[in-house]
Amino acid sequence: MLAELRGLNEECGVFGIWGDPNAAQIAYYGLHALQHRGQEGAGIVVTDGHSLQAVKGEGLVNEVFSAGKLDHLQGYGAVGHVRYATAGGGGIENVQPLLFRSTTGSLAIAHNGNLVNANHLKQHLERQGSIFQTSSDTEVLAHLIKKSGYSSFEKRAKNALSLLKGAFAFVMMTEDEMIVANDPNGLRPLSLGKLGDAWVVASETCAFDIIGAEVVRSVEPGEFLIINNDGLRVERFAFPAKRAICTMEYVYFSRPDSDIDGINIHTARKRLGKELAKEVQIDADVVTGVPDSSISAAIGFSETTGIPYELGLIKNRYVGRTFIQPSQDLRERGVKMKLSPVRQVVNGKRVVMVDDSIVRGTTSRRIVTMLKEAGATEVHVVISSPPIKNPCFYGIDTSSSEELIASSNSIEEIRELIGADSLTFLSVEGMVRAIGRTDEGPEAGHCLACFTGNYPTEIYGDTILPHQKELVR
Ligand code: SF4
């Protein structure tokens, strides 16, 4: 579904390149490919070996880097970031990469994820005299690095990273090296690639395709990569814990042309649709998917059931940035602007509407209503993931569990609320099987916390809002 309409938002995308004289320009294109991961701010910091220069701003990548702005960024190493503001809220001060300057050198940090012990560490650091410039959890890492007693930057960074809990994919840069680190559970995706002699890292492999880079591999949980003019060195700051990649990356967040751990997102989504088709029996005339992220699952559902796939809903791509409007009312109005039914396709038909998830249910209700108003005689909603019942603490914007319709309603109640003729969710087992990861154990290397309530890390009290407490089992 459309991220901006539904209230399920990825927090960020990170990009890094080392060893190319056009580092800033390449980072710009990389960030473009990651734009779906965050539209509220973007930034690039570049090094020429002597100093770090930054351009950052609120808005889309092409708005922030309008003509001429990239010309100021000369160097062979760059770190970039696109931001969707959840932890710490919006504001220019929170746009990343965060840049810290001191007499011993500068440090740029780009972060995707959310630290569950950030407040705890922040209080501790403040008691020791630290003053924070931003409300972002990312700044905690810079203070921890600065306060660490080790002499070398690498040791200080490792020590600081080992104190963090939660989800983090970091790309950091000093004047003369880039450091890449992934949390011990590998909650957020992070890939390593090669562009000629240059090393590149990105939240998603689609950022490599756009710049012509090759995928080398995923950055492993607990890994600490040092990239400088001597090349790449692979070290660790922590032993890998149980792998727990965010399942919603496969279901919804990542772009269909990205791969995570060698599994293509479009192909995985098609399999989710096929699996769903095995779990439900529906008599219908057409299958349609909610654009863009549910199209692949709809195609898979159609292939298995034999019910023809049709373009029953289209997305109007040029309606402006209504998605940044925060109020529920405006979001709902945005649905009307962004999606339209194709009347000739759905009129007089029994329609299967495939979607990847239901968060609040308001968008689903509007789409069902829209299809019925366009003449659909029945609308059967099938969802290519299980009900989302629990909040996410790892960087996905479902922090308000009161808004999760499945946390307090049965499937039949949700069906009634959205006005569908039937409603089916994919089972957890079916979802894991369809994605096809081969890690050991029933969770197969997934984080499934928003579906099952089984969080892969400790959840610190300071990350739980009062109304979320009862939802954490
Ligand atoms: S709780 Fe859900 S959205 Fe959050 S990281 Fe886990 S699978 Fe992803």
UniProtKB/TrEMBL annotation:
Mg(2+) binds at S293, D355, D356. Pfam families: GATase_6 (PF13522). Pathway: Purine metabolism; IMP biosynthesis via de novo pathway; N(1)-(5-phospho-D-ribosyl)glycinamide from 5-phospho-alpha-D-ribose 1-diphosphate: step 1/2. The active site is at C12. Binds 1 [4Fe-4S] cluster per subunit. [4Fe-4S] cluster binds at C246, C392, C447, C450. Residues 12-230 form the Glutamine amidotransferase type-2 domain. GO terms for molecular function: 4 iron, 4 sulfur cluster binding; amidophosphoribosyltransferase activity; magnesium ion binding. It catalyses: 5-phospho-beta-D-ribosylamine + L-glutamate + diphosphate = 5-phospho-alpha-D-ribose 1-diphosphate + L-glutamine + H2O. It is an enzyme of class 2 (transferase). One of its GO terms (biological process) is 'de novo' IMP biosynthetic process. Its cofactor is [4Fe-4S] cluster; Mg(2+). The keyword Iron-sulfur applies. Its EC number is 2.4.2.14. Keywords: 4Fe-4S, Glutamine amidotransferase, Glycosyltransferase, Iron, Iron-sulfur, Magnesium, Metal-binding, Purine biosynthesis, Transferase. InterPro entries: GATase_2_dom (IPR017932), Ntn_hydrolases_N (IPR029055), PRTase-like (IPR029057), PRTase_dom (IPR000836), PurF (IPR005854), PurF_N (IPR035584). It comes from the Bacteria. NCBIfam families: purF. PANTHER family: AMIDOPHOSPHORIBOSYLTRANSFERASE. Catalyzes the formation of phosphoribosylamine from phosphoribosylpyrophosphate (PRPP) and glutamine. In the C-terminal section; belongs to the purine/pyrimidine phosphoribosyltransferase family. This is Amidophosphoribosyltransferase. The lineage of its organism: Bacteria, Bacillati, Bacillota, Bacilli, Bacillales.
